[in-house]
Amino acid sequence: MRDMEIARSVLEEGVWSLVIVKDGLVLFRSEEHGVAPFFEAVRSMDNSLHNAAVADRIVGSAVAMLCLHAGIASVYAAVASRPALDLLQQRGVLVTSRDVVPHISNRDGTGSCPFELLARNAGSPAHLYSALEAMFGGPE
């Protein structure tokens, strides 16, 4: 739980949109928004994220599935979609959120976030990871 408290505290400083903590150390933080920074963290740190804590400004189904893929132990979201919360809870991930919304909207608010749709169609965390890898480019 200490890792989650650290991650949430760093996130709430207001500068960062994503913070990952493990064993009391901040492993990753980003000011960038969206799924890309978390995907890059998962891709670059791979197994070292197992049992880490994530604090993110927005957690939708795509981020939730990436958390499952990486073996994240706990997640804090400033805003989370109901499907993302349900998925994480069903898989035994400790998750809390300040605000819960029915779905994550796209940037202009006219529909669902494209990553939410991608996650819904992926079917599994591994398939989503592969789809994101194809979208953002293969391993570095």
* Broad shape: globular
Task: Tell me the number of helical segments per DSSP (H or I, 4 or more residues long).
Answer: 6
Helix content: 40-55%
CATH topology heading: Cytidine Deaminase, domain 2
Order of helices and strands: HEEHEHEHEHH
Number of strands: 5
Euclidean distance between termini CA atoms: 32 Å
Task: Report the CATH architecture.
Answer: 3-Layer(aba) Sandwich
What would your notes on this structure say?
With 140 residues, the chain is α/β, with parallel strands linked by helices. The chain has a 5-stranded mixed β-sheet with strand order 2-1-3-4-5. Helix 5 crosses helix 6. The mean pLDDT is 94.
